[in-house]
Amino acid sequence: MTMMKQFFKQSETFIGLGAAFFFLLIFFCVWMTAYDGVNDRIDQLKIGFVNEDKQMGLVIEKEMEKNIPFDIKIYQTIESAQKDMNQRKLDMVMQVPKGFSSEIQEKGRTDLKYFINQANASLAKQLMDVTANTITQSVNENVYMYKQQLILSKVPEQMTTVISSKELAQSLTKNIESALQSLSIQSVQPSVEKTNHVDGFAATMVPMMIVLASFVGSMIMSLNVHMASIKLKPSYSKWRILLARIVINAGVALLLTVISLVLMEAFNIELQRTFIETGVFQLLVYFSFLSLTQMFVVLFGPGGMLFNILVLSLQLVTSGVIVPKVMLSNFYQSVGSVLPATYAADGYYTVIFGGEKLALNMMILLLISLVSVVIVIIKVAFQKSSAGVLREKVSVSQ
């Protein structure tokens, strides 16, 4: 009991208890509010539609626009649609191939083509898989009716040319109608191609894993480096300490980049970008995380960890790894647009799965790093140097 009392006499005990409480509170509040109403924003997901068939294709296009609860964008060529999908402007591309109607008439069956982007949030990929099957089922129903109408429209004319009795022709037509009811409805099969696909479930978790691990590591490192800098203040100027912190951040970012590349190679994660480009991107990711977490600690001291915990939670829900960014509210989309994890996750999708936006992500990560460092410099500029004060006291005493 005495030992328990001694623990509660220490301020660090209460800081630890407070951290546990605020960690739970922040995560609970952020995640529950961020994911609230996600199902209501399913219409923000985008599907590209390419129609190369001018008969049944037009019917399918109208049905898509009327019944599918997604944003449908019409493209003239499959190449332009796939280009936008590689830039993650589309979640899926659907193609009605040329000769779709003629194959149904001649062979009785054909394929609808779907291209689902795997460099995307988990929820979006699952929804597109389900959507492909749902669309195919709906198309099959339309195709079934189309085949019936096509055959029945020709039967009376053919019968009357062969059979002189119109009554007999009508009777035979009814028999044929009855027979048509037993036709198979599965005339169209889905042909799904998963673009930017990588084998193995583990690779799909890399964007989330790196964002989570590297940001938490940055939080802990920034706090401990800040505590070390407080101890060094009496002996060194504030600018030397700040310069040393920035150099340490850059050095650690470089070291983590090398380690990450080695680990990716060790676990057979194939890179879709060059080794150097991937390395530079990872360097900017780590440095932006370290710069951002350092900024909050410099501005608010150890209390800045509460802001870092808040930012960690915000980044996990807004980065687009679990739920697509477009399905979040406007507030959380705006918040995510200024946080580095959004561009880190997007860039890792490009590195691991493929895409065309890595350069833009790198530029924004660099900008976030620079803004964070500039804010820290401004804050330090208004601080009084402890080393200078100590020298003044020494000279006065002498």
Automatic annotation (TrEMBL):
GO annotations of cellular component type: membrane
Annotated membrane-spanning segments are 12-34, 200-221, 242-263, 283-300, 307-327, 358-382
Q: Which InterPro entries match?
A: ABC2_TM, T7SS_ABC-Transporter
Q: Which residues form the ABC-2 type transporter transmembrane domain?
A: 22-378
Task: Show the GO MF annotations.
Answer: ABC-type transporter activity
Q: Could you tell me the superkingdom of the organism this chain comes from?
A: Bacteria
Q: What is its main location?
A: membrane
Recorded topology in the membrane: Multi-pass membrane protein
Compartment annotation = Membrane
Ordered alphabetically, the record's keywords are: Membrane, Transmembrane, Transmembrane helix
- Organism (species): Heyndrickxia oleronia
This protein is called ABC-2 type transporter transmembrane domain-containing protein
